Automatic annotation (TrEMBL):
Annotated GO biological process: histidyl-tRNA aminoacylation
Protein name (record): ATP phosphoribosyltransferase regulatory subunit
An annotated GO cellular component: cytoplasm
InterPro entries named among the record's database cross-references: aa-tRNA-synth_II/BPL/LPL, HisRS-like_core, HisRS/HisZ
Keyword tRNA processing: no
Keyword annotations from UniProtKB, A to Z: Glycosyltransferase, Transferase
Record organism: Limimaricola cinnabarinus LL-001
Domain of life: Bacteria
Length: 359
């Protein structure tokens, strides 16, 4: 990591501090239990885990947002804004050429009007990257989540779909099963039809007890008796996921969808206010891309507006900048107290590579 990358990180930090952001630092080692509670065991595939004899399992910091939110919810007052620059660590088992340690420079806003804060963070990141050949992408996970919450189906099904919003393949498999587009596997059908599923199977082995297995089978039977999600609602969800147009055209489509799916009405209103606020900050919203599924493969805390900036000529590179809204994360880490929050991060080494023509 050369000195030019550190210089770029300092430049970005100066921009954020100039907007009133308080510089913060967080420990490189973070409690693993907090991240495991948030993301489940999936995070182990992306983070470095170590054991401390006194503090238990710890993780090398995979990003700054979670520790900054923890600190704010413990000690901060609203509204507040923070900035940071430092190393984060990600395992790269599928792509050994990508760095496992790199710098992040970020800007976070807590409190205030959500539409205005979303617009400020996006415009700030865009301005900091001015002069680079980058394409923006935007989306809104909150619209999909609102659509799921409004489905005419069981709370158990809606909860399962919401847990897998950030796992597109698993989400699709569940949705197709709940909508009766794919049949139940024969083995599961036989299991649920059996009067005594344990008959002739021998002793119970593994970590689950007999009671836990019986409870799971009862849950599966309840699920099988639940009527399928209507084809009309399935098609509306598909329309949201397939959206890929300029923001104004997407907004028009979403307003049409909201006629048949009123549950997304507030989220669509939020998108309208955000686009107005972005336009007031000089963002060309008329040509701004919007994708219904954008942001669903990132770390699992974005629950509203999401954005990114990518090199159009190097699709193999990670995004130069990403960000979004994470109100629900503040509720999880604030023990029920929620604060509107949005932020964005830039990778200084990618900025340097693109600026010098090495990307």
């Amino acid at each position: 990591m050369g000195p030019e990358v550190r210089t770029e990180a300092a430049r970005l930090s100066a921009i954020f501090e100039g907007l009133g952001a308080q510089p913060v630092d967080t420990s490189i080692l973070q409690p693993a239990d907090v991240l495991l509670d948030l993301y489940g065991e999936d995070i182990r595939a992306r983070a470095y885990v170590t054991a401390d004899p006194l503090r238990g399992e710890m993780m090398l910091r995979p990003d700054f947002t979670v520790p900054v939110v923890r600190a704010h919810m413990d000690e901060g007052g609203d509204p507040a804004r923070y900035c940071y620059a430092g190393e984060v660590f990600r395992r790269q088992e599928t792509d050994p050429d990508r760095p496992i340690e790199f710098l992040q420079a970020g800007f976070e806003i807590f409190g205030g009007d959500p539409a205005q804060a979303d617009a400020e963070v996006f415009a700030t990141i865009a301005d900091a990257l001015e002069g680079l050949d980058l394409w923006p992408s935007t989306g809104d996970i909150g619209i999909l989540m609102a659509a799921v919450r409004g489905l005419r189906t069981s709370e158990a099904r809606k909860g399962a779909l919401l847990r897998h919003v950030w796992r597109p393949r698993r989400f699709r498999a569940l949705l197709d099963r709940y909508g009766a587009r794919t049949p139940l596997p024969a083995q599961r059908k036989a299991l649920m039809a059996a009067d005594d599923p344990f008959e002739g199977v021998g002793p119970v082995l593994g970590l689950r007890t007999r009671i836990e297995i019986e409870t799971r089978i009862a849950t599966l039977r309840d699920e099988a008796r639940t009527p399928p999600i209507s084809e009309e609602e399935m098609e509306l969800i598909d329309m949201i996921l397939d959206l890929r147009e300029t923001a104004p055209n997407v907004l028009s489509s979403l307003r049409d969808i909201a006629v048949d799916m009123p549950a997304i009405g507030d989220a669509v209103t939020g998108l309208t206010r955000r686009l107005d606020a972005m336009s007031a900050r000089g963002v060309d919203v008329q040509s701004l891309p919007f994708e219904g599924s954008f942001g669903r493969t990132t770390l699992e805390y974005y629950d509203g507006f999401v954005f990114g900036f990518q090199s159009p000529t190097r699709a193999d590179l990670p995004p130069v900048a990403t960000g979004g809204r994470y109100d629900a994360l503040t509720r999880q880490l604030g023990q029920g107290r929620a604060v509107p929050a949005v932020g964005g991060v830039i990778r200084p080494e990618l900025v340097v590579q693109i600026r010098e023509g090495r990307a």
